[in-house]
Amino acid sequence: MIDPFSLAVGAGLFGAGLLAGKLTRRQTGAGTTPKPVCGCSHGLEQHDPDTKECHGQVLHRDWIGNQWVPCTCRQYVGPKPFEELFVSPMRPPQDTA
């Protein structure tokens, strides 16, 4: 049997948590759309729309020194499954006639 004092304390803590969550909730911008960024952190404007190759450069660090090299990203943007990015799906040919 649970005593009423423990139930009251639990309900009070629960209510305080709900109130704190409502008061400290972060507000999102209603009219702002985020700039699309690829997984390589370059903007999508640096990717070729046909071949999906990135024209950005990344800093490559090794034991010789630092140098800028072309980005090897292939622009993965979801929700297309990652497996379909490199391998075409195994489906029978579609008759479009």
Strand runs, count: 2
Helix content: 25-40%
Rg calc: 26 Å
Which segments are poorly predicted (pLDDT under 50) over 5 or more consecutive residues? none
- What is the structural class? alpha+beta
SSE string, helices as H and strands as E: HEEH
Biggest sheet strand line-up: 1-2
Q: Which word captures the global form?
A: elongated
Fraction in beta strands: 5-15%
Number of helices: 2
Largest sheet: 2 strands, antiparallel
Mean pLDDT over the residues? 77
Span of the ends, CA to CA? 74 Å
Oligomer state of the chains in this structure? single chain
Question: What topology emerges from the helices and strands here?
Answer:
Layout (H helix, E strand, L loop, with lengths): L3 H20 L33 E5 L4 E5 L11 H5 L11
Antiparallel strand pairs: 1-2
Could you explain how this protein is built, in words?
The protein is 26% helix and 10% strand. Strands 1-2 form a two-stranded antiparallel ribbon. It has two helices and two strands; from the N terminus they run αββα. The protein is an alpha+beta fold and 97 residues long. Strand 1 and strand 2 (66-70) form a beta hairpin.
Search tags:
two-stranded antiparallel sheet, alpha+beta, 2 helices, 2 strands, 97 residues
